[in-house]
Amino acid sequence: PRRTPFWWAAHFSAFMIFGHSCFDKTLVQPPTSLLGFLFLGLLWRPTLHCRLGCLSGVAVCGRWPLRVAASAAALYGLFVGWRELRTGLLFRRAQILETHGRFDEAYAAYRASTRVNPAEIHTHAYAGTLANNKLKRPEAAIPHLQRAYRMDPNFAHINGEIGLALGSMGRHDDALPFFQRETQLYPFDVLAHQRLFLCGLATGRQAGM
User: Fold this and answer.
1) Spatial contact of 13 and 40, defined as CB atoms under 8 Å apart
2) CA-to-CA distance for 145 and 131, rounded, in angstroms?
């Protein structure tokens, strides 16, 4: 197809949105992140060709398989869009509530977003961090943080947050490896080294820190 300025603008916008999604501090916050899917839809060109061969070897174009495949793709796209929209709205609501100091309601919204989209790492990380740091409920924070850790063990400051939650429960020996990993990922973060040293004091393993 002919490359119009509109096409290039959509292409650039999709690239920027999905590219920034790979970083901790994303450029576009939910639910406006759905614009990325919109731009991809504008760029998409259906090129699926389905051919059925008969016994005589003559190729016959099968319209019904193509229609079924296109319908399935459209339904899945609607499902993904609706899921992302609900996740984004709940996540945004949680952030606003947290900003206003309504931590119980914010945690409920974060938790609801984890149920809507269990594979979204941000929802689990934020729910766990809020539960431990604001609500002082490490037992509620640990499952969320561990879920995020299983998705990506180096995501943001997940190691430090798990260490804090375990330390709040008196499990300093279990927390120490997470603080050590945090300092490896962020060698110039003073707070990470301070937490590691304090955990080392609590476990009697501060030698060389």
Assistant:
1) no
2) 10
